[in-house]
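Proteins fold reproducibly. Next comes a concrete instance:

***
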Amino acid sequence: MIKKVLFSCISVLLLLFVSCGEIDYDKTMYFGYISPDQITFENGLIFIDYGNSQIVKFADFDSLITVPICPKPNCPHTDENECSALGINGTIFVYNNSLCWLANEMRYDDVGNLTDNTTLYMSNTDGTNRRQVAELEGYRVSGGAFVYDKKVYFCATDVEYESEMSADYALEYLYSYDFSEKKFAQIEFLAEGYNSGAYIRGSFGNALFMIYQGTPELGMRENYDEHRKYALYNLENNELDILDKNTVSASEDCLICFNDDGTVFVRRLNGEEICISSDRIIAQTANDYKIINDILISSFYGVAYDLKTGTEYNLNNSGVVIAYYNRKYILKNNSTGEIFAVGERELLTSTS
């Protein structure tokens, strides 16, 4: 199993419920899509609240309280120069009890060519003591990051710009940064072309699950699916395995796949395949699926499927299910950033 970065929230949460003290991380959890702006832990969550000045917040699963990570009591969280919860943007992750982020910047080089640059920053877990660690010139980071051993893995794009507003030809790579050797490394070429993209969408055993694509001509949207690939990159033997099945996500060491007829099935690490018998769980909506507590969940479409019993459910809450903790499901209101907990009977209603 993949060794993951950890978390253990301070038990006395926050000074007067106004600010969050420094957090000790234990375990990063990966439920489906690996988000660039949200990190889920065993008993908490750190995320960038884009609806509130892009402020970084911490949500505690025990107290169900959400606050900015800034350690200053009574801080108004309005001035980036004064508040450590502001000014953090890009792809966030945690390494060695430090909050890290990969920030993209578009700039012109010495001869006037437009180029991308990505900078790796680190700080204390409350956003203080920020420092620049390294810079990756000529690339921008796409999607989330995955920490394994002493490295962080991410997808990076090399864009051949024609202008600031044009849809340009690009090359997609899997990259890593080694914290022990203090350097970036290009791991694998993935794709090239127009309409390109590459994303880490989850983990499966000791492998990263990725989706990437690129079309040879601009505007080839009708053949987009033909150029999309699904692959596993093994972090132990460094091999890339292109999957022959249509696979849209990886969650709780399961691959969520679909057949050519649109039916969905789940493949476990042990090779077991579970066919989903439901007219509502289909390939067209599978991007939203995640597996939490052995239940396939789509918060967006309000449907769930118990992989053990084959029972289909309706979801009864409007929040997004993000974790299962202390026998309750943790949901997040993406509009407010607040979290709440519900039991299984409150969350799920059988459709039969």
